[in-house]
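S.,

Sequence below, as promised.
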Amino acid sequence: MKLASLAKAAAVAAALLAAAPAQAQQDWPNRTVKIVVAFTAGGTTDILARMIGQRFADKFKQPFIVENKPGGAGNIGTEFVIRAPADGYTIMANSVGPAAVNPSLFAGKINFNAVTDLDPIGQIADVPNVLVVHPSTNIKTMAEFLKYAKANPENLNYASTGIGTSSHLSGFLLSAKAGFKAEHIPYKGAEALKDLLAGRVQFMFATIPSVIQHIKAGKLTAIAVSSKNRSRSMPEVPTVAESGFPGFEAGSWFGFFAPKNTPRDVVLALNKALNEALTDKEIDARLVLDGADPKPGTPEEFGAFVKAEYQKWAEVVKASGAKAN
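The prediction came back faster than expected:
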């Protein structure tokens, strides 16, 4: 074969190779997509991932399978996705902890940063924390809570689901802004709520889904929600901000991410499908009933939100002195 023919053949081969990824993107998805959840099955992140994942499967006519990779406060599953191929076949549902708090909380102990090493797809929902107290305290309002807190500086304990979690940092933030002392008692997940229900600790910031039934049953008293606006799930409960602390905003949120440099058309297709799900009346009603506020939007809006959350919680983590175990 002449040199000219060899050069032409090489050029054709190169063109075919270059076209292959583009063709693969156009055909996406043509096989199962994995949704990684960095926590155990049954938690809020897992529930949301399965709910929206089913809508993705219906939309794209391919299975979207949830794979739980718990451990390391969400770091194990998050790093797995960061290291995964950026081909659209591995995405993750993640929460405020691994996505925005852990980069500061685990500084020097992890070699990745979810804020810069993942591509945002879109936010699923805000899940406000609610300040709840045991009924034995006879507290009904924020004013009564503050009076009680300042009168019992040596006997005031608050539970959290772990060091550096949203429930911990929300409690620290309120005590710092309100000027009262309280002993932080970290637990492993749901054990915190058990001790609060038993009256062994006096208060806690808990996600609405985890306590809404206990509030309705009178086993806990809701004082205020930590979100910017009142929760659609509990509109009668005021925000911390309107209870005397303007600008107070803390809580949990959840969203979808993909490995860095995932094809843009894949990210946009997933974002569109996510927004369609979140604006569906059935999904909207289910989320609100469970204590979540749906947050449809663009990848850019979600990315800017995550960066702002990272900066905010970095300051709170530093001020609290919280360090990962």
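The first helix runs from residue 3 to 27.

Coffee later?
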